[in-house]
Amino acid sequence: MTEESGSKRHGLIIVNTGNGKGKTTAALGTVFRALGQGFKVAMVQFIKGGWRYGELNAAEKFPNFSLEPMGHGFLKLGDGEPAPEDCALAEKTWAECAARILSDEYDLIVCDEVNYALSYGLLPVSTVLDTLARKPQRLHVILTGRNAPGELIEAADLVTEMREIKHPYQQGIKAQRGIEF
Amino acid sequence: MTEESGSKRHGLIIVNTGNGKGKTTAALGTVFRALGQGFKVAMVQFIKGGWRYGELNAAEKFPNFSLEPMGHGFLKLGDGEPAPEDCALAEKTWAECAARILSDEYDLIVCDEVNYALSYGLLPVSTVLDTLARKPQRLHVILTGRNAPGELIEAADLVTEMREIKHPYQQGIKAQRGIEF
């Protein structure tokens, strides 16, 4: 394994999928590493309530990390057929991602839980693929969430499936501060 | 999913295993979140050269994060039978972990790539399980690396397997600064 040299950076399309823990958390670890390299990083969240106190607080130490949009454009997790307003929210949130992706102002952009919107049909895969095809060469993009569509996996450079082997909720242990939020 | 209440914290034993990316990176994301909660965190590395510029630089922003030991006790990845000096190094590095685990001074301790030492027989699983059985109630411990032994999975609260679906080296793309180091 060699490191990138003076050659132009090859920005990666990275997908973290699967039913286990660690999809968003691994993205957050990559953000941490990238911030340490002085990268400009944005993270856009598709699921309402996804921001947790721990990462918000830690993120404040890094002026080169933006967590917008904070107050709008989030989806709620729910059952049943997607409602038109859910689709509109997903499209709006993707527009926030796309504007950042195409701005060429960032080194790393995380589209957190976008796979949820794709797999529930709230957002056409073609919309996402079209933007990714036009991304700046240097930009890394991480797309997280369960059930990443095959076309996205096809377009990606690095795909990891996080599989749940054992989960504490199975044993009645509650979510732990500082670990899960 | 409910959050922990005023009840005593239930420190988790967390295992990140599998052949994919994201085992250490997800641990780093959890560290980031925990630091934001004001937790005291230590990360002990079993593989030489595991520290990368990105996380070292980001870690400096958090006085409650310790990365020791930095200069000794590391294993080299290699083929063949474990040499006695490799076993001694693994035992010494575990002793560093165990001292921190049993000190009751930390909220989260990451034993990074310890599963490598376990699966290669450099360190007895019983040694690790014995320490974990005596850990402070409030302490979370994350153990990363491929091929986590069954007894460790049995003792853990949360186990995730990171599976490689697609990797950029397959396409001849080099390791990228800020993403992988």
Explain what the structure shows:
Two copies of one chain form a homodimer. The first copy, chain A, contains six helices and six strands, in the order βαβαβαβααβαβ. Chain A is an alpha/beta fold. Chain A has helices at residues 23-36, 53-59, 84-103, 114-119, 125-133, 150-155; strands spanning 13-17, 41-45, 65-66, 108-112, 140-144, 158-166. Chain A has a single domain, classed as 3-Layer(aba) Sandwich (Rossmann fold), CATH 3.40.50. Chain A has a six-stranded parallel β-sheet with strand order 3-2-4-5-1-6, with helices on both faces. The interface between A and B is large, with 70 and 70 residues.
